Amino acid sequence: MSVHIGAKPGEIAERVLLPGDPMRAKWIAETFLEDAVCYTQVRGMLGFTGTWRGQRVSVQGSGMGMPSASIYTHELINEYGVRSVIRIGSCGALALDLNLGDVVAAIGSATDSNMNRARFDGLIDYAPVADFGLLRTAVDTAAAQGVPMRVGPILAADAFYTDRPDLYDALALYGVLAVEMESAAIYTVAARYGAKALTILTVSDHIKRGEAMESAQREQGFSNMVKIGLDTIIADA
Ligand SMILES: O=P(O)(O)O[C@H]1O[C@H](CO)[C@@H](O)[C@H]1O
Ligand SMILES: O=c1cc[nH]c(=O)[nH]1
């Protein structure tokens, strides 16, 4: 039983969707999973296990920011034997040709977080990347579902509210599609402990155009992304 999840052994599936928002976890469980059971309410960070197309899948809230996401990813892998995680998140678009509601898969994640600098003693700029197999399956799944999905690099930022929008402009020049707040940590922790990770995002804000979804849409408006995530994670061997 881990400190922050507190589930009993066997209550969590080997394949887990990881939304930041615990209420999105609840919505996914109630809307998509069969026979979903809530296995944790510790700190209100809800987690559920059920089945999707007959396969056991869990969905676990991971909170906001990389310290929080690192804790959940670490405990899922090391305490519960989780083998693959797919983050199901919202993001702010940097690319001008992305629109609210578009789906993005993060092939790699730049970050302004100090977590990996500390991890490598400031000597290495580690490159957190998606698991290739999960990414390839997600691309095939999105195509089969008829959902356009953009694949590219993103930024995992420590701050939601930034005083340095000029840095976002600079990253956009390098093809960085969008910003969110967890992917780099999830990719790093999964790599460290031999698990597979992918991040799929829905554009909830456009940073350059100042557009934003309502909070209810962020909680319950991401069906396309959730179906890609579920079909991808059950296809994982
Ligand atoms: O919608 P979620 O998955 O929480 O992800 C994004 O939303 C939060 C900020 O509003 C951050 O956690 C960011 O990464
Ligand atoms: O980190 C995030 C997530 C959603 N939207 C943003 O603008 N930033």
Summarize the topology.
Blueprint: E1 15-18, H1 22-32, E2 34-40, E3 47-52, E4 55-60, H2 66-80, E5 84-93, E6 103-111, H3 115-119, H4 132-145, E7 149-156, H5 165-173, E8 178-180, H6 183-192, E9 196-206, E10 211-212, H7 215-220, H8 223-235
Parallel strand pairs: 1-4, 1-5, 5-9, 6-7, 7-8
Antiparallel strand pairs: 2-3, 3-4, 5-8, 6-9, 9-10
Helix pairs in contact: 2-6, 4-8
Bound molecules: 1-O-phosphono-alpha-D-ribofuranose (R1P) and uracil.
Organism: Actinoplanes siamensis
Protein name: Uridine phosphorylase
Family: Belongs to the PNP/UDP phosphorylase family.
Describe the structure.
- Keywords: Glycosyltransferase, Transferase.
- Residues 15-216 form the Nucleoside phosphorylase domain.
- Belongs to the PNP/UDP phosphorylase family.
- With 237 residues, the chain is α/β, with parallel strands linked by helices.
- It has one domain: Rossmann fold.
- Helix content is 35%, strand content 28%.
- A five-stranded mixed barrel has the order 5-8-7-6-9, surrounded by five helices.
- Strand 2 and strand 3 (47-52) form a beta hairpin.
- Helix 2 runs parallel beside helix 6 and helix 4 (132-145) packs across helix 8 (223-235).
- The longest helix has 15 residues, at 66-80.
- The chain is globular and about 45 Å long.
- The structure holds 1-O-phosphono-alpha-D-ribofuranose and uracil.
Provide a quick synopsis of the model.
The chain has a single domain, classed as 3-Layer(aba) Sandwich (Rossmann fold), CATH 3.40.50.1580. It has 8 helices and 10 strands.
